[in-house]
Amino acid sequence: MAALVAAPLARRTQSFGVEDVLIGTSPLGGIGASLSDDAASMIVETCVQCGFREFDTAPLYGLGKAEERLGEGLRRGCGGDAALLASCKVWTKVGRNIRDTENLSPHADIEEENSPGNSIYLDSPKNSRPVLDYSWNGAFVSYADSVKRLGPGIQISGLRCHDPETKVLESLAACPGGSLEGLDALRSTHGTEVSLGLNDAGVALRLLQAAEPLNSCKTVNIDSLMLAGRWHLLDQSGAEVFRHCALNGVAVLVAGVYASGLLAGGQLYEYRPATASEVARRDAWAALAAERGVSLKAVALAFAFLPACVHRVAIGLAEAVLVAETVELLAEARTVPAELWRDAVARGLLAEGLVEGL
What we know:
Helix content: 25-40%
Order of helices and strands: EHEHHEEEHEHHEHEHEEEHHEHH
CATH architecture of the domain at 18-228: Alpha-Beta Barrel
CATH superfamily of the domain at 18-228: NADP-dependent oxidoreductase domain
Radius of gyration: 20 Å
Number of helices: 12
CATH topology of the domain at 18-228: TIM Barrel
Largest sheet: 8 strands, parallel, barrel
Number of strands: 12
CATH class of the domain at 18-228: Alpha Beta
Strand content: 15-25%
C-alpha cells in the first residue's frame, strides 16, 4: 500500500468499555434470521443487565418490528425501575415511513427492495411497506411513528437521516425543506441529536459539507455521523470522512466492525458471499492476531476504537449469549498490543500513516 498523503488520524488515548458501545438492533428485525419476540426481548434485557445503555434502531429494521421489540425489551430489562429506563438512550432514523398496504397513498414512493419478500429483514410484517420520504414533514412523521412503536418510557436521544445514498435522496435530504432541516427543527422541539447514518463515505462527506454555512442556504449543525462498513480491518475508506469530522467537531460512530460477519467467523462480506481475495485478507489478519495472542474479533473491535474521533462503536447482537461475549471481547480488545498495528503496516494490511503511530 502506498503511504497516505493526508495527515494521520489522531489516535485514541483513553480506554474504552461497555459505555462506549452502541447496541445495534438490526437483528431485532430478523436480519438474515427470524427471531421470536421473546428471543429479541431477551437480547435487550441481557444488554441492560450487562451495563449497555445506548441503542441504535430504525424503522427499516423489520419495518417497525425492531423498534417495537427494543421498547418492550428495555421496559422488561429495567423491571419497572423508571430511573434505569430513563438512563437508556435510543437513536432511531428517518427517511422511510412504514405504512400498511391498505393505507398507502397512490403516489407513495415504495422501496420495493426492502419490502416483504425482497428484504433481508425476515420479520417484517407482510402488509407493511417502506415509503421513502426525505422531506421536512417526513422527518416529523417518522419521529412520531417511532415514539409510538418504541412505547412508553423510551427516550429518543437522536435521529439519523438514514441511507440517502442515491443522487435524488441525497439532494432531497440536504435541500431546503429536506430531512436535515426537519431534524434541525426536531432538535429545537424535542432536544434530539441531529445525525447521519449511511454506508457511502462519499455521500457522507458531501452531506456534511452541504450542511456548512458556505454551502447551504440554511446551516444545519450535524452532531454525529454513523458510518457503516467503511472503517474495519478490510476497508478504511472512511478515513477522509473521519478527518472532516475531527476538524469540525462531529462525533463519529462506527458500525459494521466485523465486515458483515466475515471477521467474526461468517462467510458474507457486504451481505454477499466473500470473494477469495477477501477471505485471504481476513485470514492474514487472523494469522497476525494469533501470533500476538489475541482473537481476530478482539483485533477488529480494537481497530474500530483506534481513531480519537470515534465516539461510539455500534455492535449488532443476534443472540443473548453474544452480549456477555461482547463484554469479554471489549476487555480482550484493550490488551491488543501496539506492535500488532505496526506489523499490519509492514505486511501491507494497513496503510502507513493512516493513524498516528502506525
